[in-house]
Amino acid sequence: MKLARSGAELITICKENNISLSEYAIAREMEDRGLSREALFARMKATLDVMREGATLGREKAVYSLSGLIGGDAYKLEQYLSTGKSLMGNTLIKAMAMALSSSEVNGSMGKIVACPTAGSCGILPAAILTAGEELGKTDEEMMQALFAASAVGMLIGMNATFAGAEGGCQAECGSAAAMAAAAVVEMMGGTPEMSLDASAIVFKNVLGLVCDPVAGLVEIPCAKRNASGAISALSTADLVMAGVTSKIPFDDALSAMYKVGRSLPEELRETALGGVAITPTGIKLKEQVFGKDA
């Protein structure tokens, strides 16, 4: 299977071979790693299991980060879900709870899947697991979705960045949400073109999102950005499945994200020298963790 180096090439390859994004990614992995389809799915099943554990633990009990800066919010959302009084409905509340749970497990030094980074670890699991439950998908179908997400991830890795230190939070949470949106569109029966439209829309909506972690820790505002990213992925998937297209194609949107990220001052690229990290409260929270001399 030819390696796609752009979204346009990926769409062409999928059309020529009459395959989905997930089947493209599976074919590439089999070729690159010399593994059988069964071996690849066994590895992906292990990944899905860790994702599910991380997305569940914080909903079953309050989980706190080692710093004490975040924790218990996924559990609060799960309790709120049980009241049946949410404005957005159970699906989106569940997605936010899953995303926060993974972020809280990460902060507690628990096991997560960095997909594509630890700071954005809650978005893809929340979107895939929530959509999977709502659509009645099997584990194998959710694993297919994860392969679809990886097809988009390969393009981001080749043509842009996942690093907040290089591209801001748009490169971390933005990339995770773009990958998740593409995957959910495939889960809903969308074409590769529709999946890449979803990714493009997500990127356009987060252009310029800065990386400003309080105390330099991947906790504030990162955890709640994971909840927002999961909602972005799911809502964008519905947009696209309704027939909404992106006027700016995926390749252009990805290029814009990368260029905008590189244009951000260093204060807004994971250094904790700008944004909410240097607000009076942000500084107080840093002192709370590391002391006044930090």
From TrEMBL:
Family stated for the protein in its record: Belongs to the iron-sulfur dependent L-serine dehydratase family.
GO molecular-function term, one example from the UniProt record: 4 iron, 4 sulfur cluster binding
InterPro entries on file: Fe-S_L-Ser, Ser_deHydtase-like_asu, Ser_deHydtase_asu
Enzyme Commission number(s): 4.3.1.17
Biochemical pathway: Carbohydrate biosynthesis; gluconeogenesis
Keywords: 4Fe-4S, Gluconeogenesis, Iron, Iron-sulfur, Lyase, Metal-binding
One Pfam match: SDH_alpha
Catalytic activity: L-serine = pyruvate + NH4(+)
Keyword 4Fe-4S: yes
A GO biological process held by the record: gluconeogenesis
Residues annotated as domain Serine dehydratase-like alpha subunit: 16-277
Domain of life of the source: Bacteria
Protein name, as recorded: L-serine dehydratase
Top class in the EC scheme: lyase
Source organism of the structure: Candidatus Cellulosilyticum pullistercoris
Cofactor(s) this protein cannot do without: [4Fe-4S] cluster
Transmembrane segments: none
